[in-house]
Amino acid sequence: MEEKSWIINIAGLSFDGTICLMTILTCAIIFCLVYFFGRNPKMKPGRKQNALEYLVEFIRGIVSDNVPAKEVNDYHLLAFTFFMFILVSNLIGLVTKITIFPSDTNFWKSPTADPIVTMTLALIVVLLTNYFGIKKQGFRKFFVNSYMSPVKFLTPIKIMEDFTNVLTLGLRLYGNIYAGEVLLTLIASLGTSSKFTFLPALPLEVIWQGFSVFIGAIQAYIFVTLTMVYLSHKIEVEE
């Protein structure tokens, strides 16, 4: 049976209640995690503070690998925010797959398993990278550097590249997470179809749950890395 999202109608407008609920839950989880691991920082950090600092330094390394060293601090928080949101969004639906039975409405899924969410994130990335480029260089210098360099006739291609970046960045994330949820649903259906399929389905479910953690983390890493690559192209002036 095909699962449907929980649709909310307000003033003639339709909203995907499942995505709204899961996005709010994702933000709440991130806030609680950062607050729990980062509260009461000490000069001699404990395990919780060490874990948070390791994650912060890991993301800082992603930024420093792609943007000039003097500007790492300017974009570190942006990268951290994207990484945490995408990581938790990926894992919340892949690691914990919950379906309200017997209803065919799905109240629990990864926000990033919806193309609207991933395409919106990708669009935000492209808009922000252009904004930061204009802010640093001024509109005229930015346009010449980003769209008319090294030769002017490449301008249409470079403008089209922004649109393709939105598509590739958003669809890559969506495809991986959506496929993972579909497979988890199929394995769960296999386990509940009969008592003979329960035993082979159980180890498959456990294995794929572990692999889902890996996939979710890798996709968050790729998204943030590509974001910093796009950003570096917009803020660095080509000689």
Automatic annotation (TrEMBL):
GO molecular function, a single term: proton-transporting ATP synthase activity, rotational mechanism
GO BP: proton motive force-driven plasma membrane ATP synthesis
UniProt membrane topology term: Multi-pass membrane protein
TM segment ranges: 6-38, 77-96, 116-134, 173-191, 211-231
GO cellular component, one term: proton-transporting ATP synthase complex
InterPro entries hit by this protein: ATP_syn_F0_a_bact/chloroplast, ATP_synth_F0_asu, ATP_synth_F0_asu_AS, F0_ATP_A_sf
Cited HAMAP family: ATP_synth_a_bact
Family stated for the protein in its record: Belongs to the ATPase A chain family.
UniProt protein name: ATP synthase subunit a
Gene name of the record: atpB
